[in-house]
Structures are given as structure tokens and as C-alpha cells.
Design a protein that fits this description.
This protein is an alpha/beta fold and 422 residues long. It has twelve helices and 22 strands. The strands form three sheets. Strands 5, 15, 16, 17, 18, 19, 20, 21 and 22 form a nine-stranded mixed β-sheet that branches. The N and C termini lie far apart (55 Å).
Length: 422
Amino acid sequence: MSGRVLNPAVMSPLMLEDHALTIDGVPLSAIAQRAGTPCYVYSAASILENFRAYDAAFGDLPHTVCYAVKANSNLAILRLLAREGAGFDIVSGGELYRVLRAGGEAGKVVFSGVGKTAEEIDAALVAGVGYFNCESEPELVLLDSLAHRRGKKVRVALRVNPDVEADTHAHISTGRLAHKFGVDIDQAEGVYERARELPNLLLVGVGCHIGSQLFNLEQMEAADKLLELVAKLRAKGFDIQHLDLGGGLGVAYKPTDAPPPIAEFIAKLRAKLEGKNLHLLIEPGRSIVGGAGVLLTRVLYRKKTPEKEFVIVDAAMNDLVRPVLYDAHHEIVPARQTGGPKFIADVVGPVCETGDFLARDREMPEVFPGDLLAVCTAGAYGFVQACNYNARPRPAEVLVENGNWRVVRRRESFEDLVRGEE
């Protein structure tokens, strides 16, 4: 028995072979047996397939695909993408360190973020970061002064807030006037005019980012607004060379989700950019790594109360916080598919919080203590948001590549929990 397990809209590496789930041909049970649980597992082939889909869809339109490091910053994944020629979108000095450590090209790094410190900016200047997406006038002034000290001219885009409503969770919507990000698009021309007086800044770009997990191509509305701004700025003599439209394309977490294919999404952007003499930067993260990863966890107990039935597993909110933080849905499937009756249960972890759940009121197949489960579409915003709450060591990470697998981050030990403390 074999076949795809998830929604075909997801470029999922999971397959069913002889009733057992595999990832790129490697049985999940074999990985769990040696690497332990909880454990994140990623498919190198799926990650590369998604990145290449973006790159190929642009054709001959000048572009850089800058992977959003915040989605998954494991060095092995960054190294994989760096070898493909990816650019990188970073939002901290730590992410810059990771990209450089993985062999990423500094000149293809875009430094975004609303709260860059002077130390982070200076480190980026020393490294030779390609672009800064600035989000306020005080940041422009600070960047200019630090660039002056280093004797550098830096390429800058102002991140503008186009006031576009993104149909996504409120915590990952970033393009409205009430949000902390960017500069109001109606004030942007004035900011550019005042920034002319800052001699160490090359005002060559315009950027935006309206949110994450988007299905309805809201970026098209944002692109229209930004192209209008580019035309106005060029009319005033600004040499605008690049347009940064951010990331945000969604992935299928539920079988009913239907995100637009990467090629369709890029084709619509291409149609707007053709003939505009602009280099397009785009910053996908989730749509490259989200569907490429699963979180493996084992059932510890079954428990029934007068109100609920619970499947208690060894993964918890400290390993995957998305369900409680965003009310996010992840499909949860047994690593061995045997059919049989189903029941309704909450899938919960060991952490001492009522919010420690991976699923609520979920229809589950019969599972028993010791059974291995795969929490699907967990490659983005999984491990990167993990923590040590309840003094729980963070899980291992595994990369499957060319039919083999290896641990790319070892499981933390108790000694790791107290490292740095006195």
C-alpha cells in the first residue's frame, strides 16, 4: 500500500509505504528509534524543490529569492540554500551570524526588522550586507551615522506600510497602520525627501511585508501601491532600483487549505513588474520549509475524564507553540497506518499548562502508548520558537538527504539547560 498522505497542494515528502510513513523513502520509525522523540525531521529534497520553484518562476526577470531565516534557522538548512545561491532575509544579528556561518553571501542578505540595535547594524556593515530595509526615520539617521564611521555607502529601502488587510491570524498580520512595522505609505515621500540629506545612504529601494500564511494574493494589492510610490519617487529624481515585496505565501495545514501554487503566485507578480526596470526581492520562508518538516512524538498515555479523552504525548508546547500561540492546526497522523475505529480527543503534552496542546477535539485513529505520531507541516516556526519551559531540553533536528538521514542538531541535555548559569 502506498500513496501520498497529505493534500496534494502541499509539496509534502511524506509517503505511505507498506502501511508505514516515510520521508523521502526513509521510515519515520527508523529515525525515531535512533534519534529519539520529540524530534523534528526535514526533507532536503522538498526544501530545494520549493526554492527552485520560486527561482525558476521568475524566468529572466531580475530577482533575488531571499529565504526568511526566521522560519527555520538550522545551519544545515541555511547551508543547503546557500549552495543553491539563495539570498537571505534576516531580522537580527544572530540570524546574520547564522547565515555567514552557513556560507551565505553577505551581499545577498537583506537586513529587515523594526528594532535593529547599533551593534547589530555595525556588524552588518562590517560583514557587507547587501541591503537594509529601514522602518523609521530614527533608524535611517542611526544607519547613516554608523556608515559614516565605517566610511561606507549603504543601499537602503524604506519599508512602507501599505495598509493592506491580510486575511491571516492577527499575530502574523503586519501591513496595517495599527501595526508597528514600516512607515505609513502616505508619509513615505516625505521621509525619502528628508533622507536625501543623509550622505551615506543610497536610497535605491522600496519595500513592504504585509503578513504571513497568505492565500488570497494580497501582495498584488500591495505591489500596486508600491509601484505607484516608485513612480512618484522616480519622478522626484530618486534612483529606485529594487522592489522588496516580502514573503508570506501560505502552506496547507489542513486538507481543505488551498494555497496558490508558487508558480502561479510569481507569475502574477511578474506580470506587474515586466518593463518596470526593477530588481524584485522576495522573502519566502514558510512556503519553502513549512511542508518539508514533521515533528515526531510518541504516545505516553491515554486518559479519559467525564468531559474529555486525551492522548498524552512526549512533545509539548515548548517544542511546538503554534497551536496555542496562533490557534494553528497541524494534521497528526500515526507513523504506522492500520485503519480501524476513530475517536475524538485532545492531543496534549506533559507541560504544566492547560494551553499545552497540539490539537483539540481532533478525530484520531486508535493509538496506544508507544505509538509514533507525525505532526505534519512543522518545518516552519517550529524549532525556532521552541524553549526550555518546565526545564525541558529542546528536541533534536534531523535532515533527510539523498536517501540518508543525519542529526543536524543534537537533542539538548540537562547540562545544556544550565550552561551559562552560576
